[in-house]
Amino acid sequence: MNILCTSFPSRDLQQDLQEKYPDHQFHFQNHLEVTDDKLACADILITMGEDFTIDHLKQAGSLKWISCLSAGVEKLPLQAIRDRGVTLTNARGIHAIPMAEYALGMLLSHVKCFRQQFVTQQKSQWEKKYPFQELHGKTLLLLGTGAIAKKVAQLAAAFSVEVLGVNYSGHAVAGFERTFPISELLQILPQADFVISILPSTPATKQLLQEEHFQAMKNSALFMNLGRGNLFADSILLKSLQTEQIAAAVLDVFHEEPLPADHPYWQLENVTVTSHTSSYSANYMPKALGIFERNFDQFLQGKQSELENIVDLTRGY
Amino acid sequence: MNILCTSFPSRDLQQDLQEKYPDHQFHFQNHLEVTDDKLACADILITMGEDFTIDHLKQAGSLKWISCLSAGVEKLPLQAIRDRGVTLTNARGIHAIPMAEYALGMLLSHVKCFRQQFVTQQKSQWEKKYPFQELHGKTLLLLGTGAIAKKVAQLAAAFSVEVLGVNYSGHAVAGFERTFPISELLQILPQADFVISILPSTPATKQLLQEEHFQAMKNSALFMNLGRGNLFADSILLKSLQTEQIAAAVLDVFHEEPLPADHPYWQLENVTVTSHTSSYSANYMPKALGIFERNFDQFLQGKQSELENIVDLTRGY
Q1: What's the CA angle centered on B294, arms B290 and B297, to 5 degrees?
Q2: Mutate to test the interface with B, among A48, A138, A272, A275 (most CBs of B within 10 A)
Q3: Separation of alpha carbons A146 and A114, rounded Å
Q4: Which of A106, A126, A251 to mutate: most B Cβ within 10 Å?
Q5: pLDDT in tens, A152-203
Q6: pLDDT (tens digit, 9 = 90+) per residue, B282-308?
Q7: Which residues in chain A are contacts of B259 at CB distance < 8 A?
C-alpha cells in the first residue's frame, strides 16, 4: 500500500509509522504538486487538508482514503471526493482538550487583565488599578455543542460559570444548563457575559453573525472565535468593537490566514489575535497519527466503511 | 461607637455602612498619622494592615478591635496588640476565588504561551511555532493547603491535573491526591511540573526555600509565588532562572512592594510580574466589608470573642 503524507510529523513519528507497517510504503513530503508521481500511485493520502484540490484528485487515480489530520475539511473538494467514492476521515476529538484549555485560559486572562498587566510589566511599572472581575458567577454562551464545546462547558462549570449552548435544533446536551435552537440566538445573546463560537464552516454557518447579533450582546461582553473566520464579516466585528457595542474579542481564526500584517485586528487593544494555534499542543500529532493508525488497521482488514471519524461529505463535517 | 476606617471603600459602600449603623460614627480617611485625634477615640479600626504601627497603638487608648480587610497581617505589631488585649480579625476566605482564578489563568497562560503570543501580536506577526503544552495530565505541587490552596486544587483537578500538597504535619486534606509534611519537601519537588506557594509570612516560612529547593525542581518547572515575598532570597530565584534550573516564574508578591523599577524581575522574559493583584476583584471590598458587618453585629452584642476570622496573635495567621 502506498501512503503519501503531506503533513510533516517529527522524524521519530515518521520512523514509528514505517516500523509499525514494514510492508507498506510511506512517503513524507511537505508540499504537493499536481504532477507529483507519488500522487498517481497513492492509495492513501495523509494531509492537513489545505493542499489538496480537485486537480490533485484527478491525478490520484488509486486514491481510496484521505486521512485529514485536522478537523476542518472545508478546503477539500468535498463534492468531487464524494463523487469519486473516496473516504474522508478527519481528526475531530483530539482538539477538545487543547482548545478548551485555550478558551478557559483566554477567559481568565480577560477577567484577570493579564494582557494589560504584561504590557505594564514591559514598562517596569507597579500598577494595581485594573478592571478585575471574576469568572465565578458569569454566563457563557457556546455556539456549537459538539465535543470541543462540551469540554469547554465542563471546565467552565468547574469555575461556577453558567453554561448555555446553541445548536441547530436546540436539543439538550449533557454539561449545558440550557440549550437553544439557532433560531433563538438573538434572544439569548443579551444574557451572556462571554460568547464563544466553535462552529465549523458549513453553508449554514457562513456569515451567520450579522450586525444585529453583536448589537444584542452586552456592552461588557467578550466574543471569542475558535471555529472558522467566515462566521461574520470582519467589518461588522470591527464596528462593534470600535463603537464599544462589545468590550473585547479573542480571535484565533480568520477569513484569510495568515492574517495580513496590515489588518486592523492586530493593533486593537481590545482584540487578542493568535495564529490559529488554539488546538496546538505537543500532544497533537501523536494523537492525530494515533487515529490514522487505528483506521489503517481497519482499512487493511477491508473495513473501509467502518473507519473512525468518517466525514459526512454532504454536511461537510 | 467610633469606627476609624483607613482603607477607602467606594462612596457607595461608605454610605451603605453609615446608613446601616446610624447610631455609630464612621470616619473614612486614606492615611493615618500617629497624632490623629480620631485614633485616640477610635473603638474600632478598619485597615488594610499596612499603616498601623506600635506607635499608633500607643495613641489608640480606646481601641478594642482591629478589623483588617486583607489576609496578611504580618506588618501589624502582633505582640503589642496581643499584650493590649485588642482583638484582630482578618479577611481570609474571600481571597480563594480570585486567587485560584489567577493561579489557573497563569498556568494556562504558561502552557498555551499567551504572553509570547501577545508579544508577537504587538509586532503584527503570524506565528504558529511555540512550545505549546497541555495542563491535562501535569502535576501541581501546592505549598500550603488552606482555603486558597484548596480552591486551586479543586479547579486544577477539573483540568485532570494531579494535585499534591505540602503542609506542616503532612495531614490529608480533601481535594489533594497526596499531602506531605514540610520536612519531605525536597523529596517531592522533583515530581512537580508546577510549584505554587500560597504560604503566609510566619517565622516558619521566612527563607523556607533555599537554593537546593530550586535545584530539586524540574528544569521545565514553573514556580509561582502568591504567598509572601520573604519565602526565599531573590538572588536564589534569579540564579535558578538565569541558569535555567527552572523554566519560568510568576510572581505576585515581593520583599519590597512596590517592586523597585530597576529590579531584574521586571525585564526577564521567563518571569511574569503582577503588582500584588492576584486577590483583586470587583467583588473584593463588598465581601471584605461583609465580614466586617457580620462581626460588628456580634461585637455590638458583646460577643467580641466570637468574631469571624480572629487571628491567632501567636501564630500570626
Answers
A1: 135
A2: A275
A3: 29
A4: A126
A5: 999 999 999 999 999 999 999 999 999 999 999 999 999 999 999 999 888 8
A6: 989 999 999 999 999 999 999 999 999
A7: 126
